[in-house]
Amino acid sequence: MSVAGDSGLVCDLKANCKVYVLCFIGVLIFLLPNQDQAQAFADKHMLQRLNQQYSAQARQRGIALNLLLKKLADKDIKQQLTEVNFFFNQFKYKDDIDLWKQKDYWATPEEFIGLSEGDCEDYVVAKYFALRSLGVPDEHLYLTYVKAIRENIAHMVLSYFKTPKSIPLILDNYNPRILRADKRRDLLPVYSFNAKSLFLTNASAGLGRSLPTDKIKNNKWQKLLANMKRPNQ
After folding, report:
1. Closest Cα to residue 132, out of 151, 149, 109, 155?
2. Residues 180-202: b if buried by 16+ CB within 10 A, e if exposed
3. How big is the CA angle at 173 (ends 19 and 89), to the nearest 5 degrees?
């Protein structure tokens, strides 16, 4: 996701900023259990697939995540954010072209756990769904596209907004510390999205301006959803 400069990145990202939301709704339907019927993040079928398709170590990672989320179920949000962030940040960063032989592949949480390596979107997606499975409301969690200024590349982080007007906390695989967005001078936010909404974002002004989400289509999320519906293929 390298870019030539600030203007190129912002133009490219804004041109595509409508395409990342509605397919999340379908993903949520398939991934997030009803709160009255909560179950382990990695159920017995996923654990079996992790063992058969990846390794015994992958299955142990699934079990470890289940145990972590069970431990965090009644903890405060700060501890939930900290420990989920730490768990996935132990995975190895690897570019899509090297890992998947594709320029931009969005892995399912199962694939990310199985391989224990991936790029920035994979960290963010896994953290997002793990926190949602803990019951963190969707309106507090946003996937945020940013420019990593020092590296001069497009990047993605997970943002936690206490309120829509709050300065968010940033969960990032580049910097393991969870800091407020206004303390991350190395990141230039562009837009934030989740299953329900999309916003142009400012590091010091909360979520920012809401954007329309109608008529949105995204092939990457459609493929991701299809992969989740056909986990044995």
Report:
1. 109
2. ebeebeebbbbbbbbbebbbbbb
3. 120
The first and second tokens of residue 224, run together, are 């991701």
Span 155-198, pLDDT tens digits = 999 999 999 889 999 999 999 999 999 999 999 998 887 766 55
Each residue of 157-167: b (16+ CB within 10 Å) or e? bbbbbeeeeeb
- What distance separates the 2 farthest-apart alpha carbons in the chain? 48
Structure pTM? 0.77
CA distance 52 to 189: 40
* Structure tokens given for 93: 């960063």
Question: What is the token pair recorded at 170?
Answer: 């940033």
Beta strands 141-148; 187-193: pairing state = antiparallel
Q: Which of 100, 133, 98, 58 is nearest to 227 (CA)?
A: 100
Of 155, 187, 153, nearest to 168 by C-alpha is 187
Q: CA–CA distance from 206 to each of 11, 129, 151, 196, 216 (Å)?
A: 21, 22, 25, 17, 24
Distance separating alpha carbons of residues 128 and 137, to the nearest angstrom: 10
Please provide residue 11's backbone torsions phi and psi, each rounded to the nearest 5 degrees: -65, -45
Domains identified in the chain and CATH numbers? 6-229 (3.10.620.30)
Q: What's the CA dihedral at 141, 143, 148, 151 to 10 degrees? A: 120
